[in-house]
User: Fold this.
Amino acid sequence: MLFEEIDERDSFLSDSIVDGFINLHFAFQKLQFLLEDCTLEGAQLFILIKSPFIAHQFRVLFREVASTLSVLPLDLIDVSVEIKEFVRLVTKHSEKAIFRIEPDDAMAIDRLFSVLDQFEARIEPSSTLIKAILDQLNVTTWYRCNMEVKFLNEQIVVRSLNCEKEDPLLSSLVGFISYCRAVVFEKLDNEKAEQRENNFSKEMLRCLNLNDFHCPISLELMTDPVTVSTGQTYDRSSLKKWLKRGKFICPVTGVKLTNAEIVPNLTIKKIIQHFCTEYGIPVPKWGKRNRDIGKTSVPGSLAYAEMIKFLSKFLAQKLQFGTIDEKNKAAFEILLLSKPSFFNRLLLVKANTIPPLIDLLSSADPSTQENAISALLKLSKERRGKKVIISSGGLTPILELLKNGLKMELRQIAATIIFYLVSVEEYRKLIGGTPDAIPSLLELIREGKSCRNSHSVLALFGLALFPENIRRILESGAIPVLIDLLTSTDEEDLVNVPLAVLAILAMKAAGSVALQASGLQIFMSCLRSSTSQTGKEYIVSILLSVCVNVGSEAIGVLATDSMIMASLYPLIRNGTSPASKKARSLVKILHEFHEKKVGMG
Assistant:
């Protein structure tokens, strides 16, 4: 009303009045942000536990509004007497505003801490007590409960990315609401929405190009993305070097930076993490202080540990003795529970959930089969999980899905499990010696027609580390499939895996002959155009092996390329020790070939 009347009268405003309005705007903006935080989807439990702090924040902001209004020179503003009275009334009420926690909320908080204490004492609380808390939060469905889990997990991830100390209470809340989701809510009222969201995330990642995440300054994948005042994002270390040189302009736009402030771009950081994880690309190191919450075997709190123990046993019972719907839900809950933490996966494996999950792979229900294979994928990340999968006879049904799965996604999940299994040396012989394993992986790579199906290639790489498997891989026709893969993308970070496999295969005479027959020009072209140091080193290894194993015919092909020396010398100077040695050997071979040719001439 005040501002409407000022606008209608086109009143003159002095600098002191404008300053007062600016301060008022900032206070209202803070209030708006606080209100938005209180109404976020899935934040009910978080807001409940933070309600004393939030009430204090409202008191502080209302005092700030009152203080700003009280010093506003109303006599100098051309507005009606009624408006001035209204402003004074607002000021008075803002000063006296009282924010208290509702009695029902206070009781819910007491009940919640009572439940956490019981879990910590290894006592499973009554369902009546737990449901009373959920009713007060209005968390009445599985979907709403799942949104609460997601929100709390996001808070933990943000704290980790910001290198903040872990909050044991936050971990306990995640454990509590995860327990409620699986135990209290018997039906998945929105499983399809959850799966659609997961599929949407994967589709979004497929639309992205890894080159978009390269720092415009260093041209390397960003490890610590930060945003400057122009809105452009750079890697922190590269930007600091840029600014240290006295260059206070945005490298991309050329616009002068209004300040040297840089803001961490946590969104881009998370996308890079998801992208690298999804496509099997080595994840950049995020810094020593950042604790990887997904790889720790230490629970966030004692209460959390006990809740997950109770929950793991509950899910194992449902998998073994439940109805088909209960088994499906249990598999889905295991999938969700095993995503965020090594500790969760460890307890689920110890609770003996893997054997009944393997049994569900033969289910006639597509949803149950998909949830079971997806849950096994998560559990196969742990060494004990791998051992149980093999000892429980899980390899055969997993390979069956890899070969004959009705959906491409299920086959890719099976390939990823194989990738995790072959990380154990003793399983490489077992899996490589299984007749359909290698051909099925190659068929999946061929049908995928994308380097982003990299877990299949990584599985092949793991199998190739066992010498006896190299012959099987070559006999299965791997080389043309992998070379076709190299030419199907321009994203260099994604071609390094097939190059690594080809480098191993090239060490064998049969592999070198097959590569020579496929054409060395592809590798010579990649060597010239590649900006990836790792990729160049693999290519040099391939070319050297082919020259040594095939001889003058292959060397002659390389010698016709007038630019090859220019590509090799930088590797000799700047490559790793093995790469430098191989590049030097290749240069020596080419020099000897030229000298011999001149001598014969």
Summary: The beta strands are 225-227, 233-235, 263-264. The chain has 32 helices and three strands. The first strand starts at residue 225 and ends at 227. Residues 286-293 have pLDDT under 50 and may be disordered.
